[in-house]
Amino acid sequence: MLKIIKVTGESLSPLFFPGDYVLIRKYIFLFGSISEGDIVVFTHPSYGLMIKEVHWANSDLQQIHVTGSHPLSVDSSKIGPIASADILGKVIWHIKKPRHST
Amino acid sequence: MFYKFVQSVDKYLSFFEAKAHCDVPCGIYDPSPAQINALTVVRMMDLMISLEQGEEKGRLEYHNTLSRYITVKEEHAEKAKHEIRVIWGDYIKDTHLEKFPELTGLVHKIMQLGSKSRQTCNRDDGVAFVDAINQFAEIFWATKNIKTKKAKAPYAPGLEMVYPDL
Fold first, then answer.
1. Does residue B17 sit at the A interface (CB-CB below 8 Å)?
2. Is residue B117 included in any domain, yes or no?
3. Which residues of B touch A2 (CB under 8 A)?
4. Do B6 and A49 touch (CB under 8 A)?
């Protein structure tokens, strides 16, 4: 049901940074749905396990488009639509790495 | 506090990692973050040496400040190594190595000097770390046919740095 995942990469900064952890809820389609703005973890055939923000999803959730929040993040057209079967879970808790300042 | 707990559990269980990026090359590579990080290492060494010679030695504030300097030195040495590894792994190609065969040894030297700079507070190691990364920067810009110039950094510790002459 629940799983902890570690975040790598910058594309969801400034919301998420490398080293952050997220608690995801699996089987989201049995216990609700996903909508624009949700953060999801999914398996991509070329890039492996990824975490991105839901940009939009069609009504039957057969195609889910994702995006990053960083200006240099690769847009959803390059990642392509995500099949609902490839969604591992939806982020329900963000465990932030302490942000140091000098 | 909770983060530390999760991090400790991660060390034993190794949670899966999800990439927020997708490894599509963005083409943006620049050695300057590595140079600035290495320069910070020397700056921290200077501050540590200065603190050690000051009157606060042995007091609580002294230990607190020293710990902060050490932490920053550790972090920036590792960041510098990381930046070099990214350029090395993602940008440098066989054709670059054919043209600059010294690169392999230089990158290895940077990794070792970065580790030495973490393990000790030997300023000579820190300066050598900066110098090696400057050499790397010189070669990096040469692969792009961009000339470089040398100038002193406009902030402490004011070491001579390699900059692209744009």
1. yes
2. yes
3. none
4. no
Q: B16 and A9: CB-CB below 8 Å? A: no
Q: Which of residues 69-98 of A touch B (CB under 8 A)?
A: 70, 72-74, 78-79, 95-98
Confirm whether B20 is domain-assigned.
Answer: no
ipTM above 0.90, yes or no: no
Residues B114-161: tens digit of each pLDDT: 999 999 999 999 999 999 999 999 999 999 999 999 999 999 999 999
* Strand A87-95 versus strand B160-164 pairing type: unpaired
Of A49, A98, A102, the CB nearest to B19: A49
Distance, in Å, from the CA atom of B138 to the CA atom of B5, rounded to the nearest integer, reads 43
Q: Rounded distance, CA B88 to CA B103, Å?
A: 9
Residue A16 at interface with chain B, using a CB cutoff of 8 Å: yes
Label residue B101 by pLDDT band (50, 70, 90): very high
Q: What is the pLDDT of residues B75-98, one digit of tens each?
A: 999 999 999 998 998 788 888 999
Specify the pLDDT at position A100. Answer: 61
- The distance of A32 to chain B (nearest Cα, Å) reads 23
Inter-residue contact A28 to A34 (CB < 8 Å): yes
Name the residue facing A5 among B15, B26, B68 (closest C-beta). B15
Which one is the CATH code of A2-95: 3.40.50.1170, 3.30.420.140, 2.10.109.10, 3.40.30.10? 2.10.109.10
Q: What is the mean pLDDT of each run of 10 residues along chain A (102 residues)?
A: 85 77 81 80 83 78 70 56 86 86 45
- Tell me the CA end-to-end span of chain A in Å, nearest whole number: 39
| Contact predicate A83/A30, CB 8 Å | no
Residue B44, domain CATH = 1.20.120.400
Domain count, chain B: 1
In a domain, B2, yes or no: no
